[in-house]
Specification:
Blueprint lengths: L7 E6 L5 E2 L14 E5 L1 H7 L2 H5 L30 E3 L10 E5 L9 H14 L4 E5 L3 H13 L2 E7 L4 H9 L3 E5 L3 H15 L2 E2 L7 H16 L7 E5 L4 H15 L9 E7 L4 H8 L25 H10 L3 E5 L1 H15 L5 H15 L9 E5 L27
Parallel strand pairs: 5-13, 6-7, 6-9, 7-8, 10-11, 10-13, 11-12
Antiparallel strand pairs: 1-2, 1-3, 4-5
The protein binds pyridoxal-5'-phosphate.
The site of pyridoxal-5'-phosphate has 18 residues, from helix 4 and helix 8.
């Protein structure tokens, strides 16, 4: 890939505003909060135009000036595509108002590829050697794939009820993966201890600064796909919230560049009723979300009982005039089946949760029929268990063709 100038100026604690230098290895800030990457957008605006970016080859690396990697040789790429925006025609909403952004088409079958492509490329650039991570599945798979390409070692811990296919793909792609009898935050503790004891680099959600930058590309891509006019509402299945925070950051940067106007989508954080810490904090008017006890949902990607970026998620939701909403597992599964049957899309349970949340909030009058809405399907539904198909035909017996 070609070298482009980058415009990173520094990093900043998202909570205290404390400033940290670029080009160094960073985890959390000294206040124990996430760090965000800051750019010199004035200089960038003078150097590059929206149209120049539009004309580049497709894929999120086209937004290079708005990303932190300095040298092209450090970019680790597995053929990232622009994910399509597909209107739902039959099942929900009115024609051409509700769209699914189908992130399942990215490498490793989920949008975790965006965050980990950036985190791993930066790990390579900064000379890190051994990465570790707790995961509910997709993040581990993406890290394994990208890190193996970069020649970095990876050690990964996932809850022991993580879908088997995720554990297998992680191992197949060269990581050292362990199932742990606990939830993702328990796995996170192990990574934290390994970091202290043997110097692993902790790639947990928001505990390093660059996964957000990768997820930010969803917002950049969305703006470009909608011809630099953002939709009215975004429904985002929220676990650690990287994508919601990242898109919100993207919109601010695009406005500062003058590439979009001041109109912002309302950001809706979608969680499952069995694990809804952000929804509870939103309703209680809190800035932080305490740990959710006994987290349980079929939507493993959003089974995140505690999020280090809770205040950033809540801030984006509130500033945007959006809201947080929870949906039951029963509705998630029903929506998944409906969309498969009626729209030809096999959504992941987390993506199906956004469909359920859309319908629920529309029936409650929180969304209008004319709102242009984007629902995020974060992974291919093909990675998840599906209902069994049980009909059998014995070809050695007479076949009654009238029964088909
Ligand atoms: C990680 C993940 C999520 C949650 O994404 P965040 O940006 O961390 O909130 C949702 N769905 C799936 C399938 C995931 O893998």
């Amino acid at each position: 890939m070609k070298n482009y100038p980058t415009f990173v100026s520094h990093l900043e604690c998202a909570y205290t505003g404390e400033i940290f230098p670029a080009g160094k290895i960073h985890g959390l800030s000294s206040a124990g909060k996430p760090l965000i990457v800051k750019y010199d957008l004035d200089a960038m605006g003078k150097n590059i135009s929206r149209d120049e970016i539009t004309d580049r080859p497709e894929g999120f690396w086209k937004y290079r000036e708005l990303l932190p990697v300095q040298k092209a040789e450090n970019i680790v790429s597995l053929g990232e595509v622009v994910t399509p925006i597909i209107p739902l025609k039959h099942s929900v909403g009115t024609a051409n108002t509700v769209f699914v952004k189908d992130e399942g088409r990215l490498p490793t079958g989920s949008f975790k590829a965006r965050g980990l492509a950036l985190a791993v490329s930066m790990a390579k650039e900064l000379g890190l050697g051994h990465l570790a991570m707790p995961t509910n599945g997709n993040a581990g798979a993406a890290m394994a794939a990208y890190a193996s390409q970069a020649g970095l070692r990876t050690t990964i811990f996932c809850p022991d009820d993580t879908p088997e296919i995720n554990v297998s793909e992680i191992e197949l792609q060269g990581a050292d993966v362990y199932k742990v009898n606990g939830l993702i935050n328990d796995c996170g503790k192990i990574v934290g201890e390994g970091k202290e004891k043997v110097g692993w680099f902790d790639v947990s959600t928001l505990k390093e600064p660059y996964r957000i930058e990768g997820k930010k590309t969803m917002g950049l891509e969305l703006a470009e796909q909608f011809n630099w006019e953002l939709p009215d509402v975004i429904f985002y299945p929220t676990g650690g919230g990287t994508g919601l925070i990242g898109m919100w950051k993207a919109f601010a940067e695009l406005e500062a560049l003058g590439w979009i106007g001041s109109k912002r989508p309302r950001m809706v954080a979608v969680q499952a009723t069995g694990c809804a810490p952000i929804v509870k904090a939103y309703r209680d008017g809190e800035e932080h979300a305490p740990l959710w006890e006994n987290a349980k949902t079929v939507a493993a990607g959003i089974r995140v009982p505690v999020a280090v970026g809770d205040f950033m998620i809540l801030r984006a939701v509130r500033e945007s005039g959006g809201f947080a909403i929870d949906v039951s597992d029963e509705l998630i599964i029903r929506s998944q089946m409906k969309i498969a049957k009626e729209e030809g899309l096999i959504l992941c349970p987390e993506g199906a949760a956004t469909v359920a949340a859309y319908e629920q909030s529309r029936s409650q009058g929180m969304i209008s029929t004319t709102d242009k809405v984007v629902l995020f399907n974060c992974a291919t539904g093909l990675k998840y268990p599906m209902p069994a198909a049980r009909k059998f035909l014995d070809r050695h017996r007479p076949i009654d063709y009238s029964k088909f």
